[in-house]
Amino acid sequence: MTEARQSSQFHRGRTTFLLSGLGFGIMLGAVLGLNIQGLWPQVPLHATATEGYESFSIATGLVDNEVEGLYFLDYLTGDLVGAVVNPKTGKFNARFTYNISQDFPTAGRNAKYLMVTGLANMPRGRAGFQPASSIVYIADATSGQVGAYIMPWNSSMQAAGKPQAGAFQVLDVQQFRTTAIRDQ
User: Fold this and answer.
1) Side by side, which strands form the sheet with 91-99?
2) I need a surface site. Which of 61, 67, 116, 183 has the fewest CB within 10 A?
3) What keywords were assigned to this record (predicted)?
């Protein structure tokens, strides 16, 4: 191979490498620039948490786009309580309650419940109330029944810093376990 031909191949390979690097740099700069300017589509991430201990469970779930709620279930009394912190004041200013005992009559004093939350996009309710963006699912481990509950939420009251209070709405209670379990 002649020296001129080797030099030509070297320059061609070097040019290809430099142009590839330049193209990659332009693409990376465009992606970073769009992200910094807020023009790149954002992917919202939502996480919920659930924990239980002996006689109660707590869970978190999205109430609307900017705030999440804390859900507390007392196994001994059957009281379900939902509370929301107002981001402006840093204080709980919304409280919703409901006693689930009426939905799980066989649970009794030694109730064993499981509680989780899930996302929902329910239709708007009456007088500016939009159901919360999360449904609370409660399962009675003894009977195998599962109930679905939702909080009536008013984002306008939250934005104005006005307190909210009310009762959870029962969406449905269904039997999920189909086989009878005998006491051991």
Assistant:
1) 50-53, 56-64, 67-74, 79-86, 91-99, 164-167
2) 183
3) Membrane, Transmembrane, Transmembrane helix
Q: What is the CA radius of gyration of the chain?
A: 28
Q: Which tokens is 54 given? A: 């002996």
How far apart (Å, rounded) are the C-alpha atoms in residues 67 and 87?
A: 8
For the chain, the helix, strand and coil percentages under 3-state DSSP, each to the nearest 5: 25, 40, 35
Share of the chain above pLDDT 70, in %: 76
Q: Supply the pLDDT for residue 122.
A: 77
CB 117 within 8 Å of CB 57 = no
Q: Tens of pLDDT along 96-118?
A: 999 999 998 876 677 889 999 99
Total domain count, the chain:
2
| Eight-state DSSP code of residue 162 | -
27 and 72 in one domain?
no
81 and 136 co-located in one domain: yes
Residues 149, 170 contacting (CB under 8 angstroms): yes
The answer to whether residues 92 and 36 belong to one domain is no
Contacts of 14 (CB under 8 A, 6+ apart): none
pTM score of the predicted model: 0.71
Sign of CA dihedral 30, 36, 40, 45: positive
